[in-house]
């Protein structure tokens, strides 16, 4: 009775409160949280960032005892307020951004509840997944480094939480983690290369609610000039052969052929596409001389950009009837595709049937009367459409037309105002006006939007096409020739086509005038240019070889290895790598263990003897002499009495004796023989007492 | 079913880890399994892999593989942290039943640091022991006791979760050396326990405790009058009364003084009396069937008496034998050894 009571009281005492997390561990967690929020800076609302900072700071102050953690009611209150703010700002939209904010909100609220080691682990798991989510949004090398450092901080924090009071925990933690990474790196690399890149198990598009910088599928005259203020990268191109001349770098993206008011649109509705992911990988095989690889930044659109007279090589892009190229799905991440230059002018083969003629001759029923009559006048004056085009271009060339990023506003009859009064505009203005006049003259015409130009990256390895290279030009249908490029900008500002926007607006000084942080703005600072290009090159290769290493690249790489390696073989290889790695690690551990044991051959024999004793039910005692052990062994197993005593005598002689033959090979062999005999005797069933 | 499995497992472990006061932990006797956090982390890695597959994101693959490899490395690290550690029982403590009995253990890790090792036995735990490479570290683990006798801990759990807490590696130390648990002192209802020897009966009731008599075994040259013949007749021991004072006689604490009382209770009464005498620093002797401790004073004497009470009627546990005296396993009546001493001597 008394004992039972005692038991009960002891059991009550032993249910200790959960182990509290130490401040030294907590600081790592907070640091990691702060770091992992950095890649989210442009998608998280300010209020959320601020609340996270306050909540984490609160937790830290509570740890150092300066404030108290909120009680249950207060906590619930804070949670309700923040969730309400969240719901108010989200307004029912479900995008990647709102999902990510919710995730971050959950982490922020968790800070107030982080007391025990268990909570620490919960936060650890969430933050690791936050790092994962970050990779969905940013894949550049510096963001990757930030993410990985964030995870490393977590792993150091875990070590601290598991041994909070060891001296030099931080240093040894980093060293331990570093050793682990170094040791496992080969396996990680092998797994990365060989792990089969399966098709998505189910398709979850990254629906972003954020507008991306880039060309859009409608064009009002001011659109592209605002794009010209951005030095963001649009895409990068590697050529297998020679890079085409600057003036020939027309990257066609989409065609606008329908004028409504002063807005140009795509003529036909775009076909419905199932939501899903774009195939991001165009293969890594050797580039042929007439091929080029495009690594495009995410656009959230299906357009692929290609030079005129190109054909698709990789199968993630398809050619449309208009000679454009499209992905199956919107490019929500960086996409690589491969194209081929044909050089045979096949882009113009499209016959202008009655239907498409009507489509490319469409004009609004009213507006811009002067441009209309000018077109009709040209049509009356010349029979040959080529002559009409020439006439229009020479008008642009000869008269005082200006190419400017600061055109005046032209609200009513914009094309008339541009052509006959103001004569100042950007490429979009002139392309629109040219198409309008040509159509009025009865020539089928359309606006092509894309990019023109591109600057060489570091060492001219590839071309970088930026947003300010965005361009709009015209294609006109000429009988016998098909669609021909007509670029009014080339007539007005040849520098734009020959050298780029920087040269074209040099006098005006308007190049990137609102983009203070862009290195491209400071074109005259060679060091800055060099550094920015080197950084770009690093990112390019990172993007190309690491980030872009997906199914097609893997298959290309595997096809270069002997033996037909398919998906299934990759699976086997992966399993093999994991198995061999585990085996190797086990063997190394075993070897380390043995090595220590086996420094002294006598010691090894003795420890084998000890194991035999252990097995025979005579555990070795601390401080026992060999003779005592032998005596006990003999008592347990009379059969071994003789050999055990002899063996013990030899051990004594070796370690404590002064015989001349101590340490000789013969002595060792004799001991081994004795041990073997002893084992045989011990294992003989008749003498071994039944065990267990 | 589960019970049968558990007992099989216990048998297997006991066979694998025989009793020894010293153990070097190595591959043969270290067990390792993921902790709850480790299992959850495994699930997280799986989710990350699926995220990587679904979003065709190479960097997520990379992070997954990196963390997966680190987890495997951590498993080895956890194992290594324990492996090579040498643990020796250097002193088994003594105490009253119900107290925590301190066991002193010496830990040596010759090859590398063994960090954040925890030792546990029954409910008692010793966390965060760091054993620096090549240094010896003495730790004291208090093991709860429930009844008097030898306290031979069935298993001392040696565990580590370092570095990440995703795996736990553990082994057991099954010491041979037993601690001694004195009976829990209980005051006897009546003071009838002191029995005086022979002729000195009339002077016996000395309450002040200033007796100066001593009882010691017979030596050559001792006068025959001095031999306590009565005692000799009873126990067969030739004891000599050494007189140093005029008044008083040694107080004998006698097992036989409590007629009709359960043996364990008698021992508890005696323990209480020993404690009382020791507190007042009186001179006393202990008379147990089969063992007599002559009158003396001082802590060492009291200790000796308590020890005698503790192990009275019990055998030193055999090594390897399942005799978990005083441990909870016994308390629950599971162990076979318990019957051997509870049963006997009861009225």
From TrEMBL, chain A:
Domain Transglutaminase-like: 419-490
Organism lineage: Bacteria, Pseudomonadati, Pseudomonadota, Gammaproteobacteria, Pseudomonadales
Name assigned to this protein: DUF3488 and DUF4129 domain-containing transglutaminase family protein
SUPFAM superfamilies: Cysteine proteinases
InterPro entries with a match to the protein in the record: Bact_TGase-like, Papain-like_cys_pep_sf, TgpA-like_C, TgpA_N, Transglutaminase-like
Pfam families linked to this entry: DUF4129 (PF13559), TgpA_N (PF11992), Transglut_core (PF01841)
Signal peptide: none
Presence of the UniProt keyword DNA repair in the record: no
Organism in which the protein naturally occurs: Marinobacter iranensis
UniProtKB/TrEMBL annotation, chain B:
Bilayer-crossing regions: 30-53, 59-76
Region annotated Disordered, chain positions: 317-347
Keywords, comma-separated and alphabetical: Membrane, Transmembrane, Transmembrane helix
Matches recorded under PANTHER family: SLR1927 PROTEIN, SLR1927 PROTEIN-RELATED
Protein name: DUF58 domain-containing protein
């Amino acid at each position: 009775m008394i004992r039972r009571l005692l038991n009960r009281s002891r059991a009550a005492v032993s249910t200790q409160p959960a182990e509290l997390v130490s401040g030294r561990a907590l600081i790592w967690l907070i640091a990691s949280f702060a770091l992992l929020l950095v890649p989210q800076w442009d998608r998280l609302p300010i209020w959320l960032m601020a609340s996270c900072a306050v909540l984490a700071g609160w937790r830290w102050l509570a740890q150092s005892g300066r404030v108290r953690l909120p009680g249950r009611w207060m906590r619930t209150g804070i949670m309700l307020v923040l969730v309400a703010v969240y719901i108010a700002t989200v307004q029912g939209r479900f995008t990647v951004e709102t999902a990510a904010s919710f995730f971050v909100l959950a982490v922020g609220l968790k800070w107030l509840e982080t007391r025990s080691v268990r909570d620490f682990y919960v936060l650890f798991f969430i933050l690791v997944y936050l790092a994962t989510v970050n990779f969905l949004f940013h894949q550049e090398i510096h963001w990757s480094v930030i993410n990985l450092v964030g995870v490393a901080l977590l792993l150091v924090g875990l070590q601290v939480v598991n041994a909070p009071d060891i001296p030099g925990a931080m240093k040894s933690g980093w060293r331990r983690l570093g050793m682990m990474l170094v040791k496992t790196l080969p396996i990680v690399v092998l797994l990365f290369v060989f792990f089969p890149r399966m098709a998505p198990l189910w398709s979850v598009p990254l629906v972003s609610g954020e507008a991306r910088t880039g060309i859009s599928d409608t064009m009002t005259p001011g659109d592209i000039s605002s794009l010209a203020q951005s030095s963001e990268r649009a895409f990068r191109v590697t050529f297998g052969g020679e890079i085409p001349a600057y003036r020939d770098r027309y990257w066609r993206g989409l065609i606008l052929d329908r004028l409504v008011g002063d807005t140009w649109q795509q003529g036909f509705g775009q076909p419905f596409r199932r939501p899903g992911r774009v195939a991001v990988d165009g293969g890594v095989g050797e580039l042929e001389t007439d091929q080029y690889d495009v690594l495009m930044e995410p656009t959230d659109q299906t357009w692929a950009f290609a030079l005129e007279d190109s054909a698709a090589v990789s199968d993630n892009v398809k050619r449309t009837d208009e000679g454009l190229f499209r992905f199956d799905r919107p490019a929500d991440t960086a996409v690589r595709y491969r194209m081929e230059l044909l050089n045979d002018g096949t882009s113009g083969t499209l016959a202008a049937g009655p239907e498409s003629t009507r489509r490319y001759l469409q004009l609004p029923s009213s507006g811009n009367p002067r441009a209309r009559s000018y077109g009709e006048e040209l049509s009356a004056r010349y029979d040959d459409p080529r002559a009409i085009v020439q006439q229009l271009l020479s008008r642009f060339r000869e008269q005082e037309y200006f190419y400017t990023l600061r055109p005046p506003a032209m609200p009513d009859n914009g094309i008339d105002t541009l052509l006959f009064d103001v004569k100042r505009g950007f490429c979009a203005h002139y392309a629109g006006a040219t198409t309008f006049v040509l159509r009025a003259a009865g020539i089928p015409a359309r606006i092509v939007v894309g990019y023109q130009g591109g600057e060489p990256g570091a060492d001219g390895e590839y071309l970088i096409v930026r947003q300010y290279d965005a361009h709009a030009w015209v294609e006109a249908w000429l009988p016998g020739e098909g669609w021909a490029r007509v670029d009014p900008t080339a007539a007005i500002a040849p520098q734009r086509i020959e050298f780029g926007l920087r040269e074209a607006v040099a006098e005006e000084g308007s190049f990137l005038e609102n983009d203070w942080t862009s290195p491209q703005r400071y074109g005259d600072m060679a060091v800055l240019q060099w550094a920015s290009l080197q950084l770009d090159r690093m990112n390019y290769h990172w993007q190309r070889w690491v980030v872009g290493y997906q199914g097609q690249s893997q298959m290309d790489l595997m096809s270069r290895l002997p033996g037909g390696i398919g998906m299934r073989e990759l699976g086997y290889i992966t399993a093999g790598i994991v198995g061999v790695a585990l085996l190797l690690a086990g063997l190394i551990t075993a070897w380390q263990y043995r090595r220590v044991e086996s420094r002294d051959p006598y010691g090894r024999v003795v420890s084998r003897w000890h194991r035999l004793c252990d097995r025979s039910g005579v555990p070795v005692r601390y401080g026992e002499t060999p003779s005592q052990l032998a005596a006990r062994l003999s008592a347990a197993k009379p059969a071994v009495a003789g050999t055990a005593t002899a063996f013990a005598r030899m051990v004594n002689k070796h370690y404590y004796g002064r015989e001349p033959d101590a340490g000789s090979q013969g002595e060792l062999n004799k001991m081994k023989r004795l041990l073997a005999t002893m084992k045989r005797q011990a294992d003989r069933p008749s003498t071994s007492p039944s065990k267990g | 079913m589960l019970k049968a499995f558990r007992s099989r497992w216990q048998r297997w472990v006991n066979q694998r880890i025989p009793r020894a006061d010293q153990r070097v932990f190595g591959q043969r006797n270290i067990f390792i399994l993921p902790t709850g956090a480790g299992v959850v982390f495994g699930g997280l890695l799986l989710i990350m892999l699926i995220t990587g597959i679904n979003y065709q994101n190479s960097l997520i693959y990379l992070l997954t593989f990196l963390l997966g490899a680190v987890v495997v490395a951590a498993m080895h690290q956890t194992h290594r942290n324990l492996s090579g550690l040498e643990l020796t029982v250097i002193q088994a403590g003594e105490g009253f039943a119900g107290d925590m009995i301190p066991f002193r253990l010496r830990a040596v890790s010759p090859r590398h640091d063994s960090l954040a090792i925890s030792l546990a036995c029954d409910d008692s735990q010793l966390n965060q022991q760091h054993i620096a490479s090549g240094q010896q570290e003495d730790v004291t683990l208090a093991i709860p006791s429930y009844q008097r006798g030898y306290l031979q801990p069935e298993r001392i759990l040696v565990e580590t979760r370092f570095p990440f807490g995703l795996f736990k590696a553990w082994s057991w130390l099954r010491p041979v050396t037993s601690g001694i648990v004195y009976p829990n002192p209980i005051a006897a209802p009546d003071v009838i326990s002191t029995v005086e020897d022979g002729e000195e009966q009339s002077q016996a009731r000395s309450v002040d405790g200033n007796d100066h008599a001593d009882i010691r075994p017979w030596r050559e040259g001792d006068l025959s009058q001095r031999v306590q013949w009565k005692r000799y007749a009873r126990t067969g021991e030739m004891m000599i009364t050494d007189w140093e004072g005029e008044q008083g006689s040694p107080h004998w604490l006698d097992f036989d003084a409590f007629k009709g009382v359960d043996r364990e209770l008698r021992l508890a009464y005696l323990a209480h009396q020993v404690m009382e005498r020791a507190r007042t620093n009186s001179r006393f002797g202990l008379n147990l069937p089969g063992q007599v401790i002559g009158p003396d004073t001082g802590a060492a004497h009291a200790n000796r008496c308590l020890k005698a009470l503790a192990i009275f009627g019990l055998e030193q546990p055999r090594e390897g034998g399942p005799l978990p005296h005083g441990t909870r396993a016994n308390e629950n009546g599971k162990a076979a050894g318990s019957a051997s001493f509870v049963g006997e001597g009861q009225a």
